[in-house]
Each structure stands twice: as C-alpha cells, then as structure tokens.
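Sanity check

After download, print the first record. It should look like this:
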Amino acid sequence: MESTIRIENVVASTKLAEEFDLIKIESELEGAEYNKEKFPGLVYRVKAPRAAFLIFTSGKVVCTGAKNVADVRTVITNMAQTLKSIGFEDVNLNPEIHVQNIVASADLKTDLNLNAIALGLGLENIEYEPEQFPGLVYRIKVPKVVVLIFSSGKLVVTGGKSPEECEEGVKIVRVQLENLGLL
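Expected structure tokens:
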C-alpha cells in the first residue's frame, strides 16, 4: 500500500556514554551551544541528514528534526563517531535508539465539517474548541496517537513510535469518517 503520510519530524533518544563534559564538547564542535542558565543540555545541529541534538551531562542524547527513522540511526552513529574523535573514548558506537515520537502529516484532499465530525466521533475521545484552536484533536487509543483534523482535510499525527502507527492513525480516521458519511 502506498504511504498516505509524510513524516515531518522524528524524535529519538539514546545513551552514548556515562557522562559528558558539555563545556569540552562546546569548545570542540563548531556551532555547538551550551548555556546552562538557559537549558541544561548542549544543542548541536547537523546538516546531512538534517537533525538537531540535545546532549546532556548524563550521557543521554535526544535527536530531533530527522525526517525518517533511518536518518536517526545515521545521525546518532555519526554523532557518536564525532564525540569519540574529539576525545570521548567511552562513547557507545552502537547505542540502543528509542523513537519517542513521530510527527507526520496527511491530506484527505477534501473539506471537512469539524462540527459534524465532533458529534459523530463522540466527545470522549476528542477535543474541539474552535475559539481556542482551529483543529479537532482526536485521541486514538490503539495505536496510541493523536490526530489533529483540520477543516481543509489536512491531518497531523503525533505520538506514534513508528511510521506504521502514524499510518494506522490516518487509516482509522479515514474509515470512521467514511462510516459516518463525512468523507
């Protein structure tokens, strides 16, 4: 089946070492930013594949901004190599990577009546306050994702741990809207 989603952002975490000297990393990596008064981690951006890192003294690393899961593995592996090359001997070069959140978008390619959808889907799983936010917030239990539904037919899926979970969230919305005669 052809993918109906476009991944916008993958957030993943890993542990690359027991501890990091963030001041040393900042001095060695061009563009690294560390200001512990503002934020407890060091921020470092890479261009290919494009991603950003939050590196903490605990050795934990959060990677954000990648467009797919394969890129996450690539940039984290590259980051580990880079840290080793600037003198961090105990860096794990093959860390366990945990995808925390995937944000994806989709388009149903039709205008939607959000008031009718809010009534049709039932109020226990949705939030819809058009004065506060222009989209309808639909919380799906399995897979555990949140789908933002907009009157333009555009969807944003968040909370998925895999592209398949995001895809499944879109499928559930589509089937439910079809069943309600709203698509």
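If your output differs, re-run the checksum step. Summary of this record's structure: Residues 92 and 128 are 45 Å apart (CA to CA).
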